[in-house]
Design a protein that fits this description.
- This protein folds into two domains: 54-141, no CATH class; 155-259 and 277-292, Immunoglobulin-like (Sandwich), CATH 2.60.40.
- 7% of the residues lie in helices and 40% in strands.
- The chain has three helices and 16 strands.
- A six-stranded antiparallel sheet has the order 3-2-1-4-5-15.
- The N and C termini lie far apart (50 Å).
Length: 295
């Protein structure tokens, strides 16, 4: 869980136009602003690469002082404590560099940006899909709560005769033979497809939100992926079902302070920017064979 201060783009204490983390390179980054002001002056200026970039800003807006806990409302007890970790997770962004240098490249290199968050530090009981939970976040000024109603993970609908061990075998070019089933309340997914390059090596192919393909007569939803889009090889599919509030937050175009989106409230019942949610995941290995089924 991340707790960040909200800031404006006009906040000069954060966006100060300086290279605060020391990664500005005078050999390639001294390009000035859009009008060339500051170009080749030997100083890191506003608008230049590595000045006020995301990995410089993030550590300055993290709130590391909160107390975060998860409570099981059905059982009326604490089930999990969280502790701050400066390297909780990471994501990739395009490397900061002058535009003319980017234009000369076939592909702009990616850099890993690490960020801090509150991670589970102690688990006191099992998480149950059919229970409701509440995050309780205590800061120096507020007590913020967020109700979470978990949904069960997807169930993969595959032919057991087409599997070896835990891996589904599919001929290249096959359509519509890989799907999953979710409960009627689960109308949003997050799909992560990774290619398995080795025992400890995974390459992310796609990672995106998705909607169900169709609904069955009993109300359950069917999700599906088009396997013909993938080259032969071994892949790992991870489909996650977010809780309803979290799923609405992912897809909604409403302002994040809108009561229909955020489920966080302070001690006065006022809306707090953000969301508290959960996601239940299921994983399936798929090997796409280098053969094709002819019509």
């Amino acid at each position: 869980m991340r707790m960040d201060w909200t800031i404006l783009v006009t906040d000069t204490t954060i966006f100060n136009g300086r290279d605060d983390d020391g990664d500005w390179d005078p050999e390639v980054d001294d390009v000035g602003d859009d009008d060339g002001i500051g170009e080749d002056n030997g100083q890191a200026d506003p608008g230049e690469p590595h000045v006020d970039e995301i990995d410089e800003i993030l550590p300055q807006i993290h709130d590391t002082t909160a107390t975060v806990a998860l409570y099981d409302l059905a059982a009326g007890q604490l089930v999990m404590d969280f502790a701050w970790d400066w390297q909780a997770d990471s994501f990739k962004v395009e490397a900061e560099m002058p535009d003319e240098l980017k234009e000369s490249m076939d592909e702009v290199p990616l850099v890993v940006v690490t960020y801090g968050a509150y991670k589970p530090s102690a688990l006191y009981d099992t998480i149950h899909i059919d229970h409701n939970y509440e995050f309780r976040i205590t800061t120096s000024e507020h007590v913020i709560t967020g109700l979470v109603e978990p949904l069960p993970p997807p169930v993969y609908d595959i032919n057991p005769e087409a599997t070896i061990g835990d891996t589904l075998l599919v001929a290249a070019g096959t359509l519509g033979q890989f799907s999953w089933i979710t409960v009627p309340e689960a109308t949003v997914y997050w799909v992560l497809v990774e290619q398995v390059l080795g025992p400890d090596s995974l390459h992310t192919v796609v990672s995106h939100p998705a909607a169900p393909f169709e609904q069955r007569d009993d109300g359950y939803w069917i999700g599906q992926d088009i396997l013909s889009l993938y080259l032969p090889g071994l892949y790992r599919w991870t489909v996650s079902v977010p809780s309803r509030a979290y799923g609405a937050y992912v897809y909604s175009q409403l302002p994040m302070r809108d009561e229909k989106v955020s489920n966080l409230r302070d001690e006065n019942g006022e809306v707090v920017l953000g969301i508290a949610g959960s996601a239940a995941s299921a994983t399936q290995y798929v090997r796409i064979l280098d053969i094709q089924i002819l019509p």
